[in-house]
Amino acid sequence: MTITELIEVLRKYPPELQVVVKGYEDGFNDIDTIKQVSIILNANEEWWYGSHADSKDKPGEPALLLAGENKNAKEK
């Protein structure tokens, strides 16, 4: 995804909406998922988790998730 493409998608959302990415490990992926989620802020202290947690069915804070998967990964 290019900056131009990302800007066009982001224009659809409120400018004050928090933006989050998945936590854990190393490397980079192309963005292929952009969706609104509900999160619990500062829910995790373990280094291997992201700072915030999915609120699941509980009330949470709205956020915009930018994510991507490794399309080159080989399944085992």
Structure, described:
This protein has one domain. The chain has 1 helix and 4 strands. It has one helix spanning 3-10, and strands at residues 18-20, 33-40, 53-54, 61-67. A 4-stranded mixed beta sheet has the order 1-4-2-3, with no helix packed on it. The longest helix has 8 residues, at 3-10. The radius of gyration is 14 Å and the shape is flat. The chain starts with a helix and ends in a 9-residue tail after the last strand.
Approximate helicity band: 10-25%
CA gyration radius, whole angstroms: 14 Å
Query: What is the element string, with H for helices and E for strands?
Result: HEEEE
- Cross-sheet strand order for the largest sheet: 1-4-2-3
Descriptors:
flat; 4 strands; 76 residues; 4-stranded mixed beta sheet; alpha+beta
Short description:
This protein has 76 residues and is an alpha+beta fold. It has 1 helix and 4 strands. The chain has one helix at residues 3-10; strands spanning 18-20, 33-40, 53-54, 61-67.
How would the blueprint of this fold be written?
Elements: H1 3-10, E1 18-20, E2 33-40, E3 53-54, E4 61-67
Parallel strand pairs: 1-4
Antiparallel strand pairs: 2-3, 2-4
